[in-house]
Specification:
307 residues, alpha/beta, Rossmann fold, 7-stranded mixed sheet, two-stranded antiparallel ribbon, 10 helices, 9 strands, globular
Length: 307
């Protein structure tokens, strides 16, 4: 785990005691300068997902970032006039040591987690996100609930798209960089059981042992998109990017990203990102930050229309 002294000091640590999980979860929040001055004003909010709450604000999360964070990206865009005042929320949706992903899923087998995997509790991460986290942010901060966006990197992209598919009425835009999107069968009606994406033991608590087909389908973003209100999905601005084909199979999720875009097109949804495959979009935090740099102005446009 990163030394907390390396985390971006512009982000504020918030602790949220979860009744559903039975544990306290941490999240980081960035507030724009206007927040402390204009005390009656409410602000749009962007949720940034990955797994551990530190990742978006740790300048050393991997060796690619060069000492910057997503807050630097936001403030550069703000200085250029490309975006306006915005709250950033970065929640913890994994075990405290980041070894067991939460997947925005109500765990099929919470007892499959290692006995010392702190931060998981009952494993009801889907309910926690929608029933506790979102309301808590709107209660504790001066947000505009009608102007809410969500984005994620890797498994965070999976969770961002899943959240929008489950509750498209809650988000005006959704972004994902190099998302880990599982394939589906039967025109998206059911999860593809031969897909090895989530076969690793770290997914056992969330997905069960053996994997349960009905549970997999209920947590597959593609299946959820097929079941969602299509008119509501089309009101969302979709911003999907991923790495290039030449970095497959280990350096990018090009084919899974292309698959998601085909599914969206079948629903009458076009990708609003300036380019889908980033030519040098390796699966790193440098590339994830660049995704935010390219797409945040488009998130802002969607948020501004909702304000």
């Amino acid at each position: 785990m990163a030394d907390t002294h390396t985390l971006d000091p512009r982000a504020r640590l918030v602790r949220l005691r979860s009744r559903l999980l039975g544990v306290t979860k941490r999240l980081y929040v960035y507030l724009p300068p206007e927040y402390a001055v204009e005390r009656r004003r409410r602000f749009p909010v962007l949720f940034l997902l990955r797994g551990h709450e530190r990742e978006w604000i740790n300048p050393h999360e991997d060796q690619s970032r060069g000492g910057t964070t997503v807050i630097d990206v936001y403030e550069r865009l703000r200085a250029s006039g490309a975006v306006g005042p915005l709250i950033l929320v970065m929640p913890g949706l994994a075990s405290d040591d980041n070894r067991i992903p939460g997947l925005l899923t109500d765990f099929r087998c919470p007892g499959c987690a290692p006995p010392r995997a702190a931060g998981l509790g009952a494993g009801l991460f889907q309910r926690f996100f929608f029933e506790e986290l979102l309301p808590a942010i709107d209660t504790r901060l001066r947000t505009l609930p009608a102007a809410r966006a969500i984005a994620g990197f890797s498994l965070g992209g999976y969770m961002a798209v899943k959240a929008a598919a489950l509750h498209p009425e809650l988000f005006v835009s959704v972004g994902a960089f190099d998302g880990s999107f599982p394939y589906a069968s039967d025109a998206g009606a059911s999860a593809r059981l031969s897909d090895t994406l989530f076969a690793q033991p770290m997914f056992d608590p969330a997905l069960g042992v053996p994997r349960d087909p009905e549970h997999l389908s209920a947590n597959n973003p593609v299946c959820l998109l097929q079941r969602a209100d299509r008119a509501a999905l089309r009101r969302i601005t979709w911003l999907i990017q991923y790495g290039p084909e030449q970095l497959e199979p280990w350096g990018s999720n090009f084919y899974r990203g292309e698959y998601l875009l085909r599914v969206l097109r079948s629903l009458g949804i076009e990708n609003a990102a300036p380019v889908a495959a980033l030519p040098d979009g390796e699966h790193t935090w440098r590339a994830a930050d660049r995704h935010i740099e390219q797409t945040l102005p488009l998130h802002w446009e969607a948020l501004a229309r909702a304000m």
